[in-house]
Specification:
- This protein has helices at 2-9, 18-26, 42-51, 63-75, 89-100, 117-125, 153-158, 175-184, 212-222, 236-248, 262-273, 307-314, 332-345, 349-367, 372-379, 405-417, 424-431, 437-441, 458-471, 488-494, 508-516, and strands at 31-34, 55-59, 80-83, 106-109, 128-133, 165-170, 191-194, 202-207, 228-232, 253-256, 279-282, 295-300, 324-329, 402-403, 475-476, 484-485, 501-502.
- The protein is α/β, with parallel strands linked by helices.
- Helix 13 runs antiparallel to helix 14 (349-367), helix 14 packs across helix 19 (458-471) and helix 17 packs across helix 19 (458-471).
- The protein is globular, with a radius of gyration of 26 Å.
- The longest helix is centred in the C-terminal third of the chain and has 19 residues, at 349-367.
- Helix 5 links the parallel strand 3 and strand 4.
- The strands form four sheets. A seven-stranded parallel sheet has the order 3-4-2-5-6-1-7, covered by helices on one side. Strands 8-13-12-9-11-10 form a six-stranded parallel sheet, with helices on both faces. A two-stranded antiparallel ribbon has the order 14-17.
- The chain has 21 helices and 17 strands.
- The structure holds adenosine-5'-diphosphate (ADP).
- Adenosine-5'-diphosphate binds at residues 11, 14-15, 18, 35, 37-43, 291.
- It comes from Fusibacter paucivorans.
- Its EC number is 5.6.2.4.
Length: 518
C-alpha cells in the first residue's frame, strides 16, 4: 500500500482513516466512507483499484470534472479513462474498443450511462472487481442533491456477471442519508468510516449586517493582502454586481458563474490557483474540484440552500490546515429567496417539504447562540462531546447575554392569542399594534396582546422570534408560508421555568453599532 502511495501519488504517509479503509477494500469488503471535502477520499478506491486484477468503475455525477480527474490520474501514470455524453460517436467507439482490450484500470462513468445498452453490453465483457460510487448522498432524497439516476445503481450491479466490491463515498451525510446509502446501494457487511466533520482550523461565524456590502468591504480591507478567498453569492446577477463594486473599491476580484463563457471561467480559475487574483466572487458553480490548499476565507454573501451546501462550500477554506475564516452574512430576506428557488425547483410535495426542512436547519444555525461547531455536528448526526468548541464566532463572543424572557413571553403569548394560525409578520403586526387592513379585517386588534410591543422595531421582534425558533422555544412550520406554533419548551418559557438569554451583540444591537459606524 505504501509503495503504491509513493510510486503513483508521491505521498509518504496515509491520512487519518485511509490505510484501514484501503486494507478492508483490498480485502474484498464493501465500504461506506464519509470524509470532509479535501479529506482524501479518492485514494481510498484508487489504490485498491491499482492493486486489483480487474477493473474499477467509478460512478461520478460531475461530468464537468471527469476529464480533470482522469487527466490527473494519467499524469500520475495510472491507466484511466471516462465515458459520458460529451464524447463523439467515434471517440466513444474507440474507448469501448480499448476498454474491451484491457487498456484501463479505472473507468469513470456518469450514472446516466448505466441505463444505456452500449454500456451494459460493455460491462458484460469486462472483468469488474470494484464499483466506487462517488457523491453517494445523491442516492437519497433526504440529501441536498438527490439524483434519481443514482437509484438505478444497485439494479445495474446485480446484472454484472460477478458482484464486485462496492465502495460508497461522500463528504456529507446525515444519519438518514447514511441509512439510505447502505440500504439503496445494498452494501454487504460494509466497513463504515466516518471522519468527524469538525475542522479545528476553521473559524465559523454568522453576522447579520445592516449594510451587507459595507460590512464585506470593511472585512476584506482588514484581511491581509496576501490572503485569497471566495465570496459566494446566490445569483449570477449578484455575483456580477458585487464583483463590479469590489473592483471599483480597489479590490482584486474576479467573477465566476455558469453563465460566463468557458474561457472566462477558466481564466478566473487559473488566476485564482496562481494567486493572480485574491477574491473570486462566485455562485455555487465554483469550487467543485478546485483543490487550492490556501484559501484563507470563504464568505457567504447570501445564505446557501441548506446546511450540507454550506458545510461543503465553507469547507473549501483552509485545506492546508492553517487558520481560515468561514463567514456567513445573514439577512432574513435570503430565506424568502431560497424558498422561492425551492418552490421553482420541484413539484414533488414530499421533496419540497424535505428541502424546506433542510433550509430551516440552516436558518436555526444562523440564529443560535450555541457553539456553531456543536450545532453542525448535531445536524450531521455526530455525538457532541463538548458543547463549546471555544473558537467559533459564538464561543468567542464574550458579550454578556441579556435576559429577554419578558419580551419572549410577549411573543409567545401573541402566537397563542392569534390561535397559532399565523406567520411571523402577522404576529409582529399584532404586537406592534399595526392598523393595517388585514389586521383589522381579521379582528386581530381585539386580541389581548395587540400593541404590547409598540416600543420595539420590526427588526428587533423578528430577531428575538427567530432566536426563540433557533433555540427551540417556538416552532415555525416548514411550509411555504410558515406558521408559528407553541411547543413544550414554549410552555416552560411562558411559565417562567426557562429564561431566554440572548447576546445582543450577536443580534440587533450589533447591527445598530454597525449602522452608526462605531
Ligand atoms: P476528497 O475527494 O475527499 O474531496 P481528494 O481525494 O480529492 O479529496 O484529496 C484532496 C487532496 O488531498 C488531493 O490533492 C490529494 O492528492 C491529497 N491527498 C490525499 N491523500 C493524501 C495523503 N495521504 N497525503 C497527502 N496528500 C493527500
Amino acid at each position: 500500500m505504501e509503495t503504491l502511495l509513493k510510486r503513483y501519488f508521491g505521498y509518504e504517509t496515509f491520512r487519518e482513516g485511509q490505510a484501514s479503509i484501503i486494507e478492508q477494500v483490498i480485502g474484498g469488503r464493501d465500504a461506506l466512507i464519509i470524509m470532509p471535502t479535501g479529506g482524501g477520499k479518492s485514494l481510498c478506491y484508487q489504490i485498491p483499484a491499482l492493486q486489483k486484477e480487474g477493473m474499477t468503475i467509478v460512478i461520478s455525477p460531475l461530468i464537468a470534472l471527469m476529464k480533470d480527474q482522469v487527466e490527473n490520474l494519467i499524469q500520475n501514470g495510472i491507466a484511466a479513462t471516462f465515458l459520458n455524453s460529451t464524447l463523439s460517436q467515434s471517440a466513444l467507439n474507440e474507448r469501448i474498443y480499448e476498454l474491451e482490450n484491457g487498456r484501463y484500470k479505472l473507468l469513470y462513468a456518469a450514472p446516466e450511462a448505466l441505463s444505456t445498452p452500449y454500456f451494459n453490453r460493455l460491462c458484460q465483457k469486462l472483468t469488474i472487481d470494484m464499483i466506487a460510487v462517488d457523491e453517494a448522498h445523491c442516492i437519497s432524497q433526504w440529501g441536498h442533491d438527490f439524483r434519481p439516476s443514482y437509484r438505478a445503481i444497485s439494479g445495474w450491479i446485480e446484472t454484472l456477471p460477478k458482484r464486485p466490491v462496492v465502495v460508497a463515498l461522500t463528504a456529507t451525510a446525515t444519519k438518514a442519508v447514511r441509512e439510505d446509502i447502505l440500504l439503496l446501494l445494498k452494501l454487504q457487511d460494509p466497513y463504515v468510516h466516518i471522519n468527524g466533520i469538525k475542522r479545528e482550523n476553521l473559524f465559523y461565524d454568522v453576522v447579520k449586517p445592516v449594510h451587507k456590502y459595507n460590512y464585506l468591504k470593511n472585512w476584506l480591507a482588514k484581511s491581509p493582502e496576501t490572503h485569497t478567498g471566495i465570496v459566494y453569492a446566490a445569483t449570477r446577477k449578484t455575483v456580477e454586481s458585487l464583483t463590479d463594486k469590489l473592483r471599483k473599491d480597489g479590490f482584486n476580484a474576479l467573477a465566476y458563474h455558469a453563465g460566463m463563457s468557458a474561457e472566462a471561467r477558466n481564466q478566473t480559475q487559473d488566476d485564482f490557483m496562481q494567486d493572480k487574483v485574491s477574491i473570486v466572487v462566485a455562485t455555487n458553480a465554483f469550487g467543485m474540484g478546485i483543490d487550492k490548499p490556501d484559501v484563507r476565507f470563504v464568505i457567504h454573501y447570501n445564505m446557501p440552500k441548506n446546511m450540507e451546501a454550506y458545510y461543503q462550500e465553507a469547507g473549501r477554506a483552509g485545506r492546508d490546515g492553517l487558520e481560515s475564516t468561514c463567514l456567513l452574512l445573514y439577512d432574513a430576506s435570503d430565506i424568502v429567496k431560497q424558498k422561492l428557488l425551492i418552490h421553482q425547483s420541484t413539484s414533488d410535495t414530499e421533496r419540497h417539504q424535505i428541502m424546506l426542512e433542510n433550509l430551516q436547519a440552516l436558518v436555526r444555525y444562523c440564529h443560535t447562540s450555541a457553539c456553531l461547531n456543536a450545532e453542525m455536528m448535531r445536524y450531521f448526526g455526530e455525538t457532541v462531546t463538548e458543547e463549546t468548541c471555544g473558537y467559533c464566532g459564538n464561543c468567542t463572543d464574550l458579550t454578556a447575554a441579556v435576559d429577554y424572557t419578558v419580551e419572549a413571553q410577549k411573543i409567545l403569548s401573541c402566537v397563542y392569542r392569534v390561535g397559532q394560525r399565523f406567520g411571523l409578520n402577522v404576529v409582529i403586526d399584532v404586537l406592534r399594534g399595526s392598523k393595517s387592513q388585514r389586521i383589522m379585517d381579521w379582528h386581530l386588534d381585539e386580541v389581548s396582546t395587540y400593541g404590547i410591543m409598540q416600543d420595539r422595531s420590526v427588526a428587533e421582534i423578528k430577531e428575538l422570534a427567530m432566536f426563540c425558533i433557533a433555540e427551540g422555544y417556538l416552532t415555525m412550520t416548514a411550509d411555504t408560508y410558515p406558521i408559528l406554533k407553541l411547543n413544550a419548551m414554549s410552555q416552560r418559557v411562558l411559565k417562567g421555568k426557562q429564561r431566554v438569554l440572548m447576546k445582543p451583540s450577536k443580534q440587533f444591537e450589533r447591527a445598530k453599532i454597525e449602522k452608526t459606524g462605531s
